[in-house]
């Protein structure tokens, strides 16, 4: 019974780690709910009324979710600075509530300063958010000058409770968070291997579903890898350790993705295109039974399960794990590969390389392992890893020049949201002189974390949709609790937890829970009515419209312009990674390739987010949506091959089967030139230079001098050729002319 309970608990932990990497959403929800509950527990025995209780609860919520710094010391300083900002904002809200013109002018100035404060980093963003949200709280509870002394005390209690929960009850340290993210990476890597096993066993009718699951889990693994990279500096004791973890995570991700491609190729009628893994909705290639005898399929299934077991096991390996590891690492040697067709033998090679990456990940995350049971293949792999680790060196980051004046994003956004808020105030007061701030709040929120008119339009639409459904839920919940304070506050806490837990997943869901919660708060404040909730929908729609109008007419950043700028950045990063990797593979000087690869991944993530308005299901431009999805998928394919080249280039000093070949620089030069040509064309429509096609890179290297330069592995050539093909394919949807070589 106890064993079953432990297994159930282990599965639950694995599920949470995979669905919520680092438990970031769970921690955010628990921390916010804990701060509110502690505030209510402190204030309730004092016999304060409902209005101070609501004020304290909302203040503690703001003080908790507004903090953005990652280091605990910086969080404490920001929280201390936020208290006087909140007191001043609350006081001005109460004093100006009866002076309409002065109150409106102050609200606009406060909004401008809050948005402009983003240019000063996380602390400026947090203090601006606290100032605006506390002003909103004063309007929501109807604070008056006579209530200020009591409300000051309540706000102080809210901040204190937020600090207690943050630093003592639900502490999140950088090292602890990184440890949970690493565990999430393990679980997601194991789930990706499970998806590969499902693909191996899928029949013809199940191939599309199995491929979609494989595609989704590949994307989730990459998402977790990026999250780990963003936390390395704060969560590791020194730069070499951070670089070691970064390298091992990247190696494991690339090896797992390559294994999926090899398996897909083995099951298909022809070699699978990398695009198949990156284009959502792309049909699975025609599949049949795995070539060769059934024993080969059974052996492959057994070894994939063994690989999954290696991924999930932590700490020092036992004899059983060492035996599995030795067998799988043996597939890196040709003589240990089972008798099978060439595509199936490639899959076994992929398992061997994935096992090596998993062993490197185990050493980086868990420390030195027991080497007493090492086979010769395992000992050789361990020596390669040690040699790579010794080559780690730090490199200073380059400083980039930021735009100034109205071209600075924070300044432009501050002007836009101020204009939009002015329109929202005017229109909101025409709808209601008491609830106009809902329109302003919506206008403010749709500008948060958005950078183009299209993003603001989509966010406004989602907020309105969530609000409409939230109104219905608010009506039902208000009728359910009636005037009972305790059940109402319990439901408020549950809704707040759901709001923060779902916020990164769905803005519509978050808006739904916010509106349902507000219906309960109105009930507690005895201001609930059907008309109030309908008015909230009207004010929300007005605020969203005002935000879109301001974004479209005042210093607009069109979605096309935004995506083009990000596309140019992605292409430049792709060119940097590809050229540096090829240079190193050609015998040139070593560079920090994984840093360049991380910059490419971050730029691609920004582009993916910016294209969401173009790929949204409600967009009427179907052709444009298809083109945007295809371009992003092609770029993800290019990024995969560039990352693989970078990882292979870093193996150059230690791997016995990879040797530098100076001919690579000339053979791959066409690909790098084509990437730059496309980037120039996207940045300037007047440019008409074409991309060039020509013989395959493998054919360019097939000459009598091959033996002079050592062995170039098939993996390098395969990645170079696929990258070249993907870049040429990228030219067509971007309207870049393609020129064939002259005969």
Automatic annotation (TrEMBL):
Membrane topology annotation: Multi-pass membrane protein
InterPro entries found in the cross-reference section: Memb_transporter_dom
Region (Disordered): 363-388
Keyword Phosphoprotein tagged: no
Pfam families xref list: FUSC_2 (PF13515)
Taxonomic superkingdom: Bacteria
Positions of the Integral membrane bound transporter domain: 424-549
Chain ranges passing through the membrane: 21-43, 49-67, 74-94, 100-117, 124-144, 150-179, 437-457, 510-528, 540-557
Family: Belongs to the YccS/YhfK family.
UniProt name for this protein: FUSC family protein
Organism: Streptomyces althioticus subsp. attaecolombicae
Upper lineage: Bacteria, Bacillati, Actinomycetota, Actinomycetes, Kitasatosporales
